[in-house]
């Protein structure tokens, strides 16, 4: 069969394999254009003679029962270039003699295929759900964000794949300019610079999580030691260690707040000195002879009493004493009218008060419930090693990706152990970092395909052309160019009978080369002892692929140093040490009154005021601050990355 | 071309694929807040007290009753005479008088006499134990009949 002969066969949707039976002419093809651009399905525009029935009447192309699928093939000589497509839309010019039909090689199960393929591509570090909203994760297009790849629609099988935008997966089509088929036509050659290359991508991303943890810290020893240092006991005040001047009733109880995220999980305290007291009364009555008279109803009573709330009396801190005495003498008149002493009474009372200090041997265990928002801000600049188009490379375009935020890594489980202080330094965090780098890399790679060359190969080479291949071109006017095939078209115009072939390639203008890994210096032990899986390194560069590497950051949380992964001690959690404040918190009223020598009714009032004041002077207010379990922290990491090595598809400097 | 009818399927990364940024951080931890406070007072009061009282009362005794003998003392040696003789005839011993004598003078015929009450028991009341009044009797020698002394009645009770 002669080259240049087109075939057109209406088919059922199930006829997915081209066979000899499809090499027929269901329609009279007047002209056609077959084209495909990168990322799109192939399109076929066919101009055919308006179909008629045997009676010569027009046949509705969209009528019920009409086939809408078609195999199209063009004999290119060595092979056929084939297209299977579905009629789309309403044919144009349907009342004319020539009708234009438009077909697209788009699979009917596009969504399913994409989703299935996307599922295989959802792998770290290319795809990181940590920085994608949960409701957008089912979007198959989102999955390509970290890849330098684009959807590819096979024009025959309609199988969807992805194809790298720099290096095609299905091999190289060479146009060496020397062989007969390796030459390209003189006409149709074009070279354009699509835009200036992207020289740098500045990435800034935030990873947030809530550090969570629960646990207990025994503060007993710390509090007692600090308390006793600030308020020491007199020698021999109490036996044993761990006692402080305080009352059990005032000691914090279970559930009492101890600060942000802290409360008492367990505490004990008992007064070392129980309250006590008692009284003893003696006395008697009878008759006594006194002054020659018989005092018949004489009596006396003597009472000693003592009471204490418990504690050891404070030396030199005796309170006021009071003493009262009263004497009553009564007289009567005898039968002779003479007055005589008929009664006598005398009472004496005294009291003294003092202050005793209670002591306890307490325990106090603080429990924490950590809910601390953490943020790690990752920033780096990825510079593309590309040939300058502008005279000053600094004028190159830079892209900023600074709106990258993560979901809450704790809620989504990406943090692993929510007690962690750093995410980016973890294995998972490194993958997130690699994702950011790949994100920037994808932008730079795509934008590095600055040179776009269009050329017209001979028809015989067209069956080789797919968008999953690279093309190598040697042509005297452009020199050598290697690029990804980003588009092609094949057209025949029935008016002149000429076949037009065009292939477009996108050539990256990198300088080539590969990134170099380095072992770095271990920070803990010799590398022969433990490797990078156990210790951190400085200056260590690991490669994501041959084009780029980075230095994994070491965990350096800008926080309060609290490591919830380990067992916490009092020294770990104390932020502000214990301080004691004695006496009334505020000066309340007059100073301690002078009570010595006060007599009369005012004496008792003075005593009460004195006692009240004196007691207030022993008020103790202990304060300390535990590290907040609700505070938020933010740490910045400046990540070092290598320059992005980009293949040299076209050497602009050699032009 | 079909492009007009079929949407371009080149992947488009929508700006809203990213999670929303975390809300602005709250102000830095206030260093004056979040303190644990243990507040109390170890001091307790002690008190010692002493009291002493004494009471005594005294009441003088008071007569409540007496028992007397009523006697008539006649004048010895007839009536008249000088005062000295008569005074001797009527004389009673001081010891008897000391317990109380009441007399009534009379003239019976030629005899001069006086009727007197001679106490032989006097009951005094005074405060007893517990302040209750108690009675205390005092006994005296009874008067003896003589020539000029006639006992008219014995043990007459006279209330005070």
Instruction: Give the topology string of chain B: H per helix, E per strand.
Output: EEEHHEEEE
Outline of chain B: rod-shaped
Note the total helix count of chain A. Answer: 6
Number of strands of chain A: 33
Helix content of chain A: 10-25%
**Stretches of chain B where pLDDT falls below 50 for ≥5 residues?**
1-10, 79-89, 91-99
> What characteristic shape of chain A results from the CA principal axes?
rod-shaped
Give me the Rg of chain B, rounded: 59 Å
Distance between the termini of chain A: 43 Å
Total strand segments of chain B: 7
Mean pLDDT of chain A: 86
Taken as a percent bin, the fraction of beta residues of chain B is over 45%
Structural domain tally of chain A: 2
Oligomer class: heterodimer
Strand content of chain A: 35-45%
- Which chains have the largest interface? A-B, 116 and 59 residues
Alpha carbon gyration radius of chain A? 49 Å
Mean pLDDT of chain B: 73
Notes on the structure:
The complex is a heterodimer of chains A (655) and B (160). With 655 residues, chain A is mainly beta. Chain A folds into 2 domains: 6-104, no CATH class; 109-162 and 174-271 and 354-465 and 486-583 and 618-655, no CATH class. Chain A has helices at residues 110-121, 220-230, 409-412, 427-448, 570-573, 601-616, and strands at residues 6-11, 29-37, 43-49, 69-75, 80-87, 98-104, 149-153, 160-164, 172-175, 190-193, 198-218, 244-245, 257-259, 262-268, 276-290, 293-308, 312-333, 339-357, 359-360, 363-385, 397-408, 451-455, 470-475, 479-493, 498-507, 521-522, 537-538, 542-545, 548-550, 574-582, 620-626, 633-638, 644-645. In chain A, strands 1, 2, 3, 4, 5, 6, 9, 10, 22, 23, 24 and 25 form a 12-stranded mixed beta sheet that branches. In chain A, strands 11, 13, 14, 20, 21, 32 and 33 form a 7-stranded mixed beta sheet that branches. Chain A has a two-stranded antiparallel ribbon with strand order 7-8. In chain A, strand 24 (479-493) and strand 25 form a beta hairpin. The longest helix of chain A has 22 residues, at 427-448. The model of chain A has no long low-confidence stretch (mean pLDDT 86). Chain B has a domain at 62-159. The model of chain B is unreliable at 1-10, 79-89 and 91-99 (pLDDT under 50). Helix content of chain B is 7%, strand content 48%. Chain B is built from 2 helices and 7 strands, in the order βββααββββ. Chain B has helices spanning 83-89, 94-97; strands spanning 35-40, 43-57, 62-74, 101-108, 111-127, 133-139, 149-159. In chain B, strands 3, 4, 5, 6 and 7 form a 5-stranded antiparallel beta sheet that branches. In chain B, strand 5 (111-127) and strand 6 form a beta hairpin. Chain B is mainly beta.
């Amino acid at each position: 069969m002669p080259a240049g002969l087109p075939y057109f066969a209406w088919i059922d949707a199930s006829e997915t394999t081209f066979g000899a039976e499809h090499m027929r002419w269901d329609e009279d093809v007047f002209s056609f254009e077959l084209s495909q651009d990168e990322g799109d399905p192939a399109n076929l525009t066919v101009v055919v003679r308006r179909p008629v029935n045997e009676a010569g009447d027009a046949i509705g192309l969209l009528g019920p029962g009409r086939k809408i699928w078609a195999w199209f093939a063009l004999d290119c000589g060595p092979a056929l270039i084939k297209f299977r497509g579905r009629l789309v839309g309403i044919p144009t010019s349907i009342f004319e003699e020539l009708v234009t039909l438009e077909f697209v090689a788009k699979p009917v199960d596009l969504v399913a295929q994409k989703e299935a393929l996307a599922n295989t591509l959802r792998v770290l570090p290319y795809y990181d759900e940590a920085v994608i909203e949960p409701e957008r994760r089912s979007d198959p297009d989102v999955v390509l964000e970290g890849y330098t790849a684009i959807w590819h629609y096979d024009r025959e099988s309609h199988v969807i794949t992805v194809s790298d935008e720099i290096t095609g997966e299905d091999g190289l089509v060479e146009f060496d300019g020397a062989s007969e088929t390796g030459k390209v036509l003189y006409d149709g050659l074009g070279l354009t610079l699509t835009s200036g290359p992207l020289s740098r991508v500045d990435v800034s991303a935030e990873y947030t999580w809530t550090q969570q943890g629960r646990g207990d810290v025994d503060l007993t020893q710390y509090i007692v030691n600090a308390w006793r240092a600030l308020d020491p006991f007199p020698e021999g005040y109490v036996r044993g260690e761990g006692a402080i001047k305080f009352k059990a009733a005032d000691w914090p109880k279970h559930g009492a707040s101890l600060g942000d995220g802290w409360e008492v999980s367990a505490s004990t305290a008992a007064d070392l000195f129980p309250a006590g007291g008692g009284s003893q009364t003696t006395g008697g009555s009878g008759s006594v002879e006194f002054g020659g008279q018989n005092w018949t109803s004489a009596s006396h009573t003597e009472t000693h009493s003592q009471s204490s709330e418990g504690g050891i009396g404070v030396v030199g801190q005796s309170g006021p004493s009071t003493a009262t005495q009263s004497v009553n003498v009564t007289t009567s008149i005898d039968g002779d009218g003479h007055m005589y002493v008929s009664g006598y009474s005398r009472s004496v009372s005294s009291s003294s008060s003092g202050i005793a200090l209670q002591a306890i041997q307490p325990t106090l265990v603080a429990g924490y419930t950590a809910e601390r928002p953490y943020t790690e801000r990752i920033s780096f600049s990825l510079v593309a090693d590309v040939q300058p188009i502008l005279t000053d490379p600094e004028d190159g375009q830079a892209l900023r990706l600074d709106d990258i935020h993560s979901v809450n890594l704790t809620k989504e489980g990406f943090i692993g152990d929510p007690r962690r202080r750093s995410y980016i330094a973890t294995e998972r965090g490194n993958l997130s970092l690699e994702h950011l780098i790949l994100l920037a890399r994808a932008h730079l790679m795509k934008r590095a395909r600055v040179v776009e060359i269009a050329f017209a190969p001979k028809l015989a080479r067209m069956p080789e052309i797919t968008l999953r291949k690279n093309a190598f071109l040697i042509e005297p006017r452009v020199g050598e160019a290697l690029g990804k095939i980003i588009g092609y078209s094949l057209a025949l115009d029935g008016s002149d009978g000429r076949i037009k072939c065009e292939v477009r390639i996108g050539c990256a203008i990198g300088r080539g080369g590969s990134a170099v890994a380095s072992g770095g210096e271990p920070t803990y032990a010799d590398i022969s002892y433990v490797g990078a899986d156990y210790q951190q390194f400085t200056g260590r560069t690991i490669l994501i692929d041959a084009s780029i590497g980075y230095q994994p950051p070491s965990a350096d949380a800008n926080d309060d140093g609290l490591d919830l992964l380990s067992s916490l001690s009092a020294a770990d959690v104390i932020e502000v040490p214990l301080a004691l404040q004695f006496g009334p918190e505020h000066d309340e009223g007059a100073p301690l009154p002078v009570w010595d020598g006060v007599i009369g009714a005012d004496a008792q009032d003075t005593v009460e005021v004195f006692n009240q004041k004196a007691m207030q002077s022993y008020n103790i207010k202990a304060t300390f601050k535990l590290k907040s379990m609700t505070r938020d922290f933010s740490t910045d990491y400046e990540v070092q990355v290598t320059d992005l090595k980009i293949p040299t598809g076209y050497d602009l400097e050699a032009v | 071309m079909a492009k007009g009818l079929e949407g371009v399927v080149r992947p488009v990364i929508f700006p809203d694929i990213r999670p929303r940024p975390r809300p602005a951080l709250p102000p830095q931890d206030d260093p004056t807040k979040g303190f644990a406070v243990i507040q109390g007072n170890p001091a307790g009061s002690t008190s010692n007290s002493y009291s002493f009282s004494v009471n005594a009362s005294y009441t003088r005794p008071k007569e409540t009753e007496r028992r007397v003998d009523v006697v008539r003392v006649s004048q010895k040696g007839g009536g008249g005479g000088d005062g000295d003789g008569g005074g001797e005839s009527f004389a009673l011993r001081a010891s008897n008088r000391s317990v109380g004598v009441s007399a009534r003078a009379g003239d019976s015929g030629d005899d001069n006499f006086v009727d007197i009450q001679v106490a032989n028991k006097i009951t005094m009341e005074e405060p007893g134990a517990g302040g209750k009044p108690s009675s205390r009797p005092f006994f005296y020698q009874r008067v003896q009949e003589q020539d000029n002394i006639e006992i008219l009645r014995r043990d007459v009770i006279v209330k005070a």
